[in-house]
Amino acid sequence: MSTHVISRYDPIPMATASSYTFAQGSPLSIGGFLCVTAGTITVTRADGLTVIAAFPLTAGTWVPIPFYLGAGATIQLGAGCSGTLAVG
User: Fold this and answer.
1) Any residues with CB less than 8 A from the CB of 10 and at least 6 apart, and which?
2) What is the pLDDT of residues 62-84, one digit of tens each?
3) Are 87 and 10 contacting, i.e. CB atoms less than 8 angstroms apart?
4) Are strands 62-68 and 10-14 parallel, antiparallel or unpaired?
5) What angle do CA 50, 77, 15 make, to 5 degrees?
């Protein structure tokens, strides 16, 4: 018997220097980030632990970030970065 895994994510457009906070009841996992303009991404859990600190991104790249974060976690873009966050 074969098993098929199908993943889907909701696209969240993110402007330069913007942030996204996971609210209670919203999708709480990240699939990745599609970078449009180069910069950095920082991922911080609700308890304040930074799990990705100012990670440099290149325009035109898909960066898989397969993390479950939970409510209150924040994604912050910096250094001119913009793109689309995939959450599920």
Assistant:
1) 27, 86, 87, 88
2) 999 988 888 999 999 999 999 99
3) yes
4) unpaired
5) 150
CA distances from 4 to 1, 10, 30 (A): 10, 20, 20
Strand order in the sheet with 82-87: 10-14, 82-87, 29-37, 62-68
Taking all residues of the chain, what is their mean pLDDT, rounded to a whole number?
A: 90
Distance of CA 25 to the CA centre of its chain: 17
Assigned token pair, 57: 């991104």
Q: Determine the Cα–Cα distance for residues 13 and 4; give it in Å rounded to an integer.
A: 28
How confident is the model at residue 8, as a pLDDT? 83
